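Deviations from the work plan: none for this task. Representative record:
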Amino acid sequence: MKLAALGEVMVELAPQAVSQGSGQKALLAQSYAGDTYNTAVYIARGGVDVSYVTLLGEDPYSEEVLTRLASEGIDTSAIARLPGRCPGLYMIQNTADGERYFTYWRGEAPARELFADPARREVLRDYLRKMDCLYLSGITLAIMNPEARAELLVFLKEYRANGGRVAFDSNYRPRLWASAEAARSVVAEFLQQADMALLTFEDEQALWGDELPDSCIKRNGDFGVAELVIKRGAEPVLLQYQGDLVSVEVPAVSSVVDTTGAGDSFNAGYLAARLQGASPEDAIAAGNRCAARVIGHRGAIIPRADYFATDAS
Ligand code: ADP
């Protein structure tokens, strides 16, 4: 089984409070993250063959992304490099009310050209046809140009007709879309090509105005989603599958340090388990376990040593 994740990985700058004598000085820790990238990393750690599909530049940060992907055993052979370009960047700010605020510089990111160049697209289509499963998100769709996105949609129809499976997380980020309506129409088209939808209820509420999960379940049923998983933080995960609605408890996590990447890592645990033959219920348990490891540490990508040291039972 092999999965390809499509999307964008960015350079991250996050504040670190460092004591300096009598005062405190804010330093920035530099790292790399992105929703589909985070998921790809944890799927690989879950023992499934993964390819990450994006575009990068030829700068040292792009080099480092490739090095990190390779160090996780992730196939980077489908990543194109654009000369003179560099990855997008975001900074995290700790606000006075204890929340985190994100500022992005990603308008020129090479990942925006995913599926855009006809020659490169042809090569990529041939490559993706060999995959058992493709994973993408609403962020992947939001950053693509509309013509490229339309090409991707056409490809997904062909891919599924030939037995490929598509997994999708809406990951709604209002700032990436011209309007909620624009996001809804694009997300709806892609959900109609999703075999597995791994959605976060909060995002669904923001995007569609759902008050209760029922309307989310009904809508995705109408879209033809066969396997619907709804994540709700510490609340039970909902599964709509083969006509049954099942609620799966989320085991308590004793010390939640940072929930960044919770949904992404859940998706990874879920998909790795499903691709290795687990039932959807068992895959949810695996998703919960993967997310529990990640939220017990700071950052979206926790060091391999910490990840594998955490009891997965
Ligand atoms: P997102 O990161 O997309 O906002 P959620 O907050 O719904 O996603 O969380 C995704 C998954 O992470 C949950 O289904 C659960 O497995 C785990 N999780 C998140 N918050 C908690 C928590 N407070 N305690 C235990 N597990 C959690």
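The mean pLDDT is 95.
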